[in-house]
Amino acid sequence: MCGRFVQFSPASLLRQIYELKSVEDDDVKNRSPKYNITPGSDILAVSTENSLRKLTLYRWGYLPSWVGSSTKIKPVINAVSETVTQKKFFASAIKNSRCIVPMDGFYEWMSQLDTKRKIPYFIKAKDDLPLAVAGISSSITTNVDSKIVKVTTCAVLTCESNSLLKPIHDRMPVILSKKYWDLWLKNHELSASSLGEILRPADSECFTRVAVSSLVNNPRNDFPDLLKEI
Fold first, then answer.
1. Which of the following is catalytic: 2, 99, 154, 159?
2. pLDDT value at residue 69
3. What is the tens place of the pLDDT at every residue in 129-169?
4. Which residue is catalytic, options 49, 82, 99, 108?
5. Which of 115, 154, 190, 210 reaches 20 to 30 Å from 145, CA-CA?
């Protein structure tokens, strides 16, 4: 699964990487680096509108558009790639509301057989560029401060872990190869064969993992030193 991640690359860099025409939203342009993103947080995501890529803020925790503003359904942060097309909950989003979540890395915890302690690891790309993680989204109406507002929610797709991450956890985010970005962001249904080709574990050789401080366990902690190897 993916329950914590990092976004510190500025909008100016993401604009270059994802070939965005512009970044007009001040909340996006002025967003501060995030070193310990938790479920329910606002996150940056790339989507397509009128054939142009854009960078906007989504709420991490997917809910389908058909839920009401008073729903008691728990938001979902991860969607299993192997079964996402079979679930009514995700049916509309996987067909025509896909996105890319840029991650500068993510955290996972390794259980220790001899103790109940779990060691946090930070996983990132060897080239230090953001990971292009597959996501799905949905716009809902919800109650915020006694006002009904429209919020775009999203979930991160996961797949079986590669050999580097399998000792830590059996699931990892689906990380899209650049050659699939256009196809993933197009707002039309993808064939089963296309999805099978896209939603695969990324090559272990592309990543590094380091053990980091247990300070990351506290969601209130949000600073660069969380990424330091111990």
1. 2
2. 65
3. 999 999 999 999 877 677 778 899 999 999 999 999 999 99
4. 108
5. 154
